[in-house]
Amino acid sequence: MTVELEQIVRFQEQQLELLRRERAAAMDALDLASALGSFAPSLTQHQDQKPVLREMCARIGSMVGLQAAAVYLAQDEPYDFLLTLCEPEDQIPRIEGYVNTLINDNSFAFALNSPEPHYFLTDDKTQHLLLHVIGSPTRVHGMFVGLLNQSKDDILDTTNRLFSVVMLSAAHALESFELNKLFKDDNRRLESKILRRTQDLQEANAKLSLILDSIQAGVLLIDGQTQIITEANPAALSMLMTTREELLGKPCYGTICFEPDEYCPFHAKGASTVNAERTIHTMAQTTIPIIENVKEITIQGKRYLLKSFTDISEQKKLQQLREDVERITRHDLKGPLNGIINLPDVIQSMGPLSETQVEMLQHIKDSGFMMLKQINLSLDLFKMETGAYEYSPTQIDILPIVQTALLNLRSLFKALNITASVTVDGAPIDDNMSVLLDGEESLLLSLLSNLVTNAAEASPRGHHVSVHILQFRDATRIEIHNFGVVPESIRDNFFGKYVTSGKKGGTGLGTYSAKLIADTMHARIDFTTNEKAGTTVSVTFRTNKPVLSQGTV
Domain containing 455 — which CATH number? Predict the structure, then answer.
């Protein structure tokens, strides 16, 4: 009994010692794992993962006897494992040789797929290799490889379990390092981006300032809420005869602008964008005419009005001078022209004349009247160009006007061997017909004369010019046709000013003035042309008066 009791006591003592060792190992491992976790905050001081890996190897080495410790880290592209750390370094050939053997027999892959430590004999069967995957629930970071200098049987189960705790902490530390590296890289990229954008903004501001300081137009920036002038370029200060100190901070209205509310972008509904002729007041209490453009803009979420303007005082003077010259010219031309118009009557009263002579005198008289009307119309065309013409339509019958235009051009038709005809809704005209529309007789006569003249001059010799009047429910259209073809080079700008082709002495003003008159009379003018059908210029007048002939436009 005494021997058995002693054996039991020794067995119990051995078990207690084993439990103490396991407890001590467990506490050491927990302390080591906790210490490894506390390593993460210092990651910002390191440029790579090696300090983390050395710390991990040191923790494992304090738990078991290691002759060498190595770490293989997983590579993203191509997917492989690279020996990143081996201590001591002179053991690298042995470690790589052992690991290659484990890779070839799939032992390395087996250890990767298990969260537990695994032990493998070396090639010479004298030592054991400890392999433990370094991974977290989200990814595998690598493999720890330890060459033991003790028997694997002396390693406690608790220590084996705590290896996994240490490796998990190491994996988290590596993830923290990678995350911190990403943050640092993002911060560097962000700082670089901010620096580039700041430089771009500074360059843009410098260019904008240079442009604003260089342009001759005045530019003002006005607060959209308070109407306070917040910025002005040198040209604006010069035109307003003031300085930045005197102008900035003052309200626009009452300082430089005294326009009625309906013209003010701050008050007029829908007038946030303005492009018109205005007047502006200088700080010297003078007024200058300007062309003004006001545009609503947003700067840093705040509404502003950008006001740019150009002094047109010189243009106004030139315009007035032009009107004065044209008025004097018309007056000086009318005197001799009246003599030309009256002279045929004087000659006819002096004695009998032949029919041909009477016809020639009548042509001289008609041409004189036509020239007189053109002189009177010249100022009106200028007003149409500038938008100053006052259009006063009345109801007129257009048939007599068409006939007058053709009659005035009969000598041109004869010289060019051209015939002409007029139809209304496809039928020849007679004395009982009338086609009414709202317009001005002088404008319509000038429009038709220009278009018929162009048609005759463009028509092949010996051909025909036709004037077709078509009545529809809500419109009347005049079509002037000839068998000539508009050259392709001028088709895109047929109604442009000074556009002409192939006509000796042509000015290119006929179709331009016709377009100007048509626009003034609120009519639509267009044309079609091709080799087979010739050219048709049509002018369409809208009317609400019903007519007997129906159709569509």
Answer: 3.30.565.10
Decide if pLDDT at 37 tops 70. Answer: no
Q: Is the pLDDT of residue 479 over 90?
A: yes
Does residue 190 lie in a domain region?
no
Q: Identify the residue with better confidence: 537 or 48.
A: 537
What is the helix, strand, coil percentage profile of the chain, to 5? 50, 25, 25
> Do 125 and 223 fall within a single domain?
no
**Angle of helix 313-348 relative to helix 355-386, nearest 10 degrees?**
170
Same domain, 306 and 346: no
pLDDT at 186: 82
550 in a structural domain: no
Q: Pick the closest to residue 29 from 142, 162, 124, 149 (CA basis).
A: 162
From CA 90, how far away is CA 105, in angstroms rounded? 25
The pTM score is 0.42
The range of the structural domain enclosing residue 488 comes to: 391-542
- Which residues in 266-324 belong to E strands, given as ranges? 274-281, 287-299, 302-311
Predicted local distance difference test score (pLDDT) of residue 261? 59
Select from 489, 507, 505 the least CA-distant residue to 497.
Answer: 507
- Closest by CA position to 55, among listed 20, 87, 26, 13: 87
Cα distances from 477 to residues 35, 244, 374, 473, 551, in angstroms, run 98, 59, 24, 11, 11
What is the distance between the alpha carbons of residues 56 and 440, in angstroms, rounded to a whole number?
Answer: 102
Furthest-apart CA atoms within the chain: distance in Å: 182
Structure tokens belonging to residue 90? 């002179």
- Report whether 480 contacts 537 (CB < 8 A): yes
For residue 175, the model assigns a pLDDT of 80
Tell me, yes or no, whether 124 and 158 share the same domain: yes
Task: From 435, 440, 319, select the one nearest 373 (Cα to Cα).
Answer: 440
212: tokens are 């604003």
Alpha-carbon gap, residue 521 to 239, rounded angstroms: 39
Could you tell me if 141 and 174 are in contact, meaning their C-beta atoms sit under 8 angstroms apart? Answer: yes
CATH number for position 297: 3.30.450.20
Q: Which residue has the tokens 């030139």?
A: 318
Phi/psi of residue 403, nearest 5 degrees: -65, -40
**Do the Cβ atoms of 467 and 549 come closer than 8 Å?**
no
The 8-class DSSP code of residue 300 comes to: T
| Amino acid code (one letter) for 484 | G
- DSSP assignment letter at 485: -
Any bridge partners for residue 469, and if so which?
Answer: 424, 478
Tell how strand 218-223 and strand 140-148 pair up. Answer: unpaired
Residue 195 lies in a domain: no
Q: What 3 state SS string does 313-346 have?
A: HHHHHHHHHHHHHHHHHHHHHHHHHHHHHHHHHH
254 and 281: one domain? yes
Q: How many domains does the chain have?
A: 4
